[in-house]
Amino acid sequence: MTSHCRYVLRLADTSLILAQRLGEWIGHAPALEEDLGLANVSLDLLGQARMLLSYAGELEGRGRGEDDLAYLREESEFLNATLVEQPNGDFGQTIVRQVLVDAWQLELYERLQQSKDSRLAEIAAKAIKETRYHLRYSAGWLVRLGDGTEESHARVQAALDRLWPFTNELFAADDVDREVAEAGIAPAPDSLLPAWSVRVDEILVEARLAKSAAVPFGWHGKQGRHSEHLGYILAEMQSLHRAHSGAAW
Description:
Structural class: mainly alpha
Low-confidence stretches: none
Strand content: under 5%
Radius of gyration: 18 Å
Largest sheet: none
Helix content: 55-70%
Order of helices and strands: HHHHHHHHHH
Shape: globular
Mean pLDDT: 95
């Protein structure tokens, strides 16, 4: 598999797994409005994942479509960022995770619109409109929770401390990242960090939250080495398709 294909799969899998995580809130969110809000964000991410998975299948050239890539790959073949597979926890933890991912995807899609890969640029142009809304939604809630009651503040601060180390992976380059950057297909991951930091810092200040200290990071989901949580996500997500392989509506 080429670096180009692996890079597109990384983007696809990150959106797909986060969509699955957010879908777990349906029927369980704190209020009906948030039930619908999280469901809409999940559907947006699923739509992005479908476009990217279809494109990855074309780049791979083995005849695999979006369903094959979503439902018939093993855990080690998924290339999503480890952050998105982390458990939802309470509503505050979900919001913290969402802010960190939304801010990163917004910077990434803005840069991908200038990609030399016209197909990837088109997908980014469509996705960025949704991603702007995602960040407004998640940032608004983080401010309400962080600047809310003593308990809500403590919960989101604890969630931020727990999830912050996983953001290191978003900006750490490996051979795949370097190859697509040199080809003009995608920006170097570390080039996104300054703008992401400014955007996230502004939200954290308004939410009265303290940025967590940098700590070593040991997970590399984008290289197929995941936390213990991904297997459980895939078991649920893939069960129906695997039980009725080849079935069609």
